[in-house]
Amino acid sequence: MLQRSEGGLMATTVAVRRRRRWPWIVAIALAAAGGGAYYYSTRAGSEAGPAYQTATVELGDIETTVTAIAKMQPKTYVDVGTQVSGQLRVIHPDVGAVVKKGELLAEIDPTVYQTRVNGDRASLDNLRAQLAQAEAQLTLDRLRNDRAQELWSKQAGSRDAAEAAEATMRISYAKIDALKAQIAQTQATLEGDLANLGYTKIYAPMDGTVVSITAREGSTLNANQSAPIVLRIADLQTMTVTAQVAEGDIPRITVGTPAYFSTLGLPDRRWEGAVRQIEPTPTIVNDVVLYNVLIDVPNPDLTLMTDMTAQVFFRLGEAKGVPLVPTPAVRTRRDGTATVRVMTPAGPQERTIRTGLSNRSLTQVIEGLAPGETVVTGTAAATGRPGGAGGPRPSMPPRLG
């Protein structure tokens, strides 16, 4: 009984051990199957060949431009100053007022200049009275000289008396000439003082808009050291855009080059113009050489204002309705010829083309490609590598408790 019991106990123990091995065997089999599937899938993916990024040749418009940042100023403006010193009594217009040529803008205290004019006129009257007296004296001296010469000719008078009478007459002539010179000098002084008196009233030299006022009523202006500026008048109907172009781009721009721009406040509105002038003297900013390029543009609605910032595009060339390909698809050989890789049923094939206008994104195709064809722009990033980003990870065997 004991031996039979012991035999049965051993058989039971072996059966239990066999049942405990089955989960491990299943887990190992699953791990082996997963590893084999992962190996064959990655090998098949690597043998499938690279994937390409492509684009279709399409008809469209293209233009090549040079871009620059610009500031805006009125084309015609004048700083209205004063030619005389004195206290600024009144400024008639306000900033933004539209004025006409000859309109009174400001007045300076005229007291000093009016006094000078009055003094000049009094001096002039005095000299003219002296001239009249001298002319009367000359008449008398001329008569006396005639009588003395007549008596001397008849031997009835002395020679000394005749010579004295003649000398007196000549002195009278000289006095009259001196007085006439003094009158002319005083007249010139009077005209200058009258001009200065007129300068105490400042008039508009042109039609335009008062864009700034730098002086203040009651302040004293000194015109002896520098010409004080009272206000600025500008014609806002035509604005000048001053664009700063880098020295590397300036050879591509000439007088007459078409341009368009938009402002910071109105980015969706476009103004058209053409280059009027390229200033020969550059401006150097942080060791960068920049040349000022001037563009005139009409401003009938006065939307454009002084010192506005604009982004200017100088149009160097344009074409419409032409075959276009992405610029990254075009390759340039050492001999200067351009090529692209065209997708065919047999795979990508290299083809020589002739290009036209080109910018950073698009290139015009003149010859060698037709709309609808597909070109290679690059190679897609590889995926599916073990451990790589986005690739499948190998299966791990299940953890058994």
Automatic annotation (TrEMBL):
<feature type="domain" description="Multidrug resistance protein MdtA-like C-terminal permuted SH3">
    <location>
        <begin position="324"/>
        <end position="378"/>
    </location>
</feature>
<dbReference type="Pfam" id="PF25944">
    <property type="entry name" value="Beta-barrel_RND"/>
</dbReference>
<dbReference type="InterPro" id="IPR058626">
    <property type="entry name" value="MdtA-like_b-barrel"/>
</dbReference>
<dbReference type="InterPro" id="IPR030190">
    <property type="entry name" value="MacA_alpha-hairpin_sf"/>
</dbReference>
<dbReference type="Pfam" id="PF25967">
    <property type="entry name" value="RND-MFP_C"/>
</dbReference>
<comment type="similarity">
    <text>Belongs to the membrane fusion protein (MFP) (TC 8.A.1) family.</text>
</comment>
<keyword id="KW-0175">Coiled coil</keyword>
<keyword id="KW-0813">Transport</keyword>
<keyword id="KW-0472">Membrane</keyword>
<dbReference type="InterPro" id="IPR058625">
    <property type="entry name" value="MdtA-like_BSH"/>
</dbReference>
<dbReference type="Pfam" id="PF25917">
    <property type="entry name" value="BSH_RND"/>
</dbReference>
<dbReference type="InterPro" id="IPR006143">
    <property type="entry name" value="RND_pump_MFP"/>
</dbReference>
<feature type="domain" description="Multidrug resistance protein MdtA-like beta-barrel">
    <location>
        <begin position="238"/>
        <end position="315"/>
    </location>
</feature>
<protein>
    <submittedName>
        <fullName>Efflux RND transporter periplasmic adaptor subunit</fullName>
    </submittedName>
</protein>
<feature type="transmembrane region" description="Helical">
    <location>
        <begin position="21"/>
        <end position="40"/>
    </location>
</feature>
<keyword id="KW-1133">Transmembrane helix</keyword>
<feature type="coiled-coil region">
    <location>
        <begin position="117"/>
        <end position="144"/>
    </location>
</feature>
<dbReference type="InterPro" id="IPR058627">
    <property type="entry name" value="MdtA-like_C"/>
</dbReference>
<feature type="region of interest" description="Disordered">
    <location>
        <begin position="378"/>
        <end position="401"/>
    </location>
</feature>
<keyword id="KW-0812">Transmembrane</keyword>
<feature type="domain" description="Multidrug resistance protein MdtA-like barrel-sandwich hybrid">
    <location>
        <begin position="78"/>
        <end position="231"/>
    </location>
</feature>
